[in-house]
Every structure is written in structure tokens, then in C-alpha cells.
């Protein structure tokens, strides 16, 4: 790989995010070729296959038989995926209260109000 090729590589996780976005937008299981076509980046089929296989192994995607291969679909919607990532990140920190405090203090007024409302709803309080 030349220096120029290395400079053109995507930041870590960007390609995975693009693949997931294609699958969420589709709303149906997609084959490697369908994902590759939807990405429209000229990505090698083997690269797309590797990404989908790894996401399946992590439990992010399920796969179903499709012809001689598989079609892939997300296990949960985008909001559920992000919420799960947030929960895992929080669980990995020893000072959860400090992390939550910093998170809440960084919210906009609208987001803070939404969070209050959701907490009340979760407790069975008024909506």
C-alpha cells in the first residue's frame, strides 16, 4: 500500500457505520452484492464480506440463507444499537455517576427535558 492509498483510507469505523446505515435504510435482508452496490464506493466484495461476517459474529447482524450465500439484516434498529453502545460504555466505567453527570450537563435544554419526561414515563409517572 502506498502512502497515497493509506491517506485515502476511511477513518476507523466509518465503513462499518456506512454498511449499517445501508442495512437500516433497506429494511430487508441484503446480500453482500446488494450492500456493495448500495454503498457505491467500488469496495472489494471481500472487504464487504469481511465486514458483514464480523458484524454477524458480534451479534449485530443476523444472516439468512439467500441462494448460495447469505443475506444480512440488523438485529435491532439504529436507536436500539446506539442505546446498547451507550449502555455498554457506561457499564465499563468505574465512576458511572460522574459519567452520567457530565453527560446530562452536556445536553441541550430540549434533550434534558426529553430525558426527564422519559424517566418519569419509565417510573410510571405522568407523561
Give a description of the structure.
The chain has helices at residues 3-8, 14-26, 32-39, 45-57, 78-91, 96-105, 109-122, and strands at residues 30-31, 61-66, 69-74. With 127 residues, the chain is mainly α. The chain has a three-stranded antiparallel beta sheet with strand order 1-3-2. Strand 2 and strand 3 (69-74) form a beta hairpin.
Outline:
With 127 residues, this protein is mainly alpha-helical.
Numbering strands along the chain, what is their spatial order in the largest sheet?
1-3-2
Radius of gyration: 19 Å
Measure the end-to-end span. 57 Å
Q: Indicate the proportion of strand residues.
A: 5-15%
Q: What does the overall shape look like?
A: elongated
Average pLDDT reading: 88
What are the segments in which pLDDT stays under 50 over at least 5 consecutive residues?
1-7
Structural descriptors:
mainly alpha, disordered N terminus, three-stranded antiparallel beta sheet, 127 residues, 3 strands, 61% helix, elongated
Give the topology.
Layout (H helix, E strand, L loop, with lengths): L2 H6 L5 H13 L3 E2 H8 L5 H13 L3 E6 L2 E6 L3 H14 L4 H10 L3 H14 L5
Antiparallel strand pairs: 1-3, 2-3
